[in-house]
Amino acid sequence: MMIRHAAPTDANALIQLIDELGYSITKDELTANLHMYEKVQGFVFVAVEDEKVVGFISGSFIPLFHSPGPMFRITALCVLASQRGSGIGSALLQRIEEICKKKECNYIEVTSGPTRQKDAHNFYENHGYTTYKGKRFTKRLEA
């Protein structure tokens, strides 16, 4: 397996993976997001086996005003359902963690909805991530 930066030519495979997460995105939107991540200290990596994209991870650094050093937020991680449990997700997570250590990142944050409790939550806990005890607030902005 090889892990590399995602490219616009990976769009169809990434769309399929995003669909497995329960979201939909057009090819134009995905391509725009890849370009945006380049501009905002972000990363999108893909895992490739036999010349096929089988997983991806995305995220970006966020500067902290109250603390030296940035944090990193994983915005998405998905491995093809048929490939889960084979170490691909762990390898993608390890790649991000290596980058974060080099950037003297304070911590890595990932959100995972309640519908993913069985698999994703166990995956993160098995990799040393702990449940945040605070409360997260969001507000959807209308156009």
Protein described:
The protein contains 4 helices and 5 strands, in the order βααβββαβα. It has 143 residues and is of the alpha+beta class. A hairpin with an 8-residue loop joins β3 and β4 (71-79). The chain has a single domain (2-126), classed as Gcn5-related N-acetyltransferase (GNAT) (Aminopeptidase). The protein has helices at 11-20, 27-39, 88-102, 117-126; strands at residues 2-5, 42-49, 52-62, 71-79, 108-110. The model has no long low-confidence stretch (mean pLDDT 92). The radius of gyration is 15 Å and the shape is globular. It is 34% helix and 24% strand. Strands 1-2-3-4-5 form a 5-stranded mixed β-sheet, with helices on both faces.
Q: How are the strands ordered across the major sheet?
A: 1-2-3-4-5
Secondary-structure arrangement, i.e. CATH architecture: 3-Layer(aba) Sandwich
Strand content: 15-25%
Instruction: Tell me the radius of gyration.
Output: 15 Å
Question: Segments where pLDDT lies below 50 for 5+ residues?
Answer: none
CATH topology: Aminopeptidase
Q: Give the ordered list of helices and strands.
A: EHHEEEHEH
First-to-last CA distance: 42 Å
Give the domain tally.
1
- CATH class descriptor: Alpha Beta
CATH superfamily: Gcn5-related N-acetyltransferase (GNAT)
Rounded mean pLDDT score? 92
Summing up helix and strand content along with how strands pair, one would put the structural category as alpha+beta
What is the helix fraction of residues, given as a range? Answer: 25-40%
Shape: globular
Total strands: the figure is: 5
Query: Biggest β-sheet: count, sense, barrel?
Result: 5 strands, mixed
In DSSP terms (H or I, runs of 4 or more residues), the helix count works out at 4
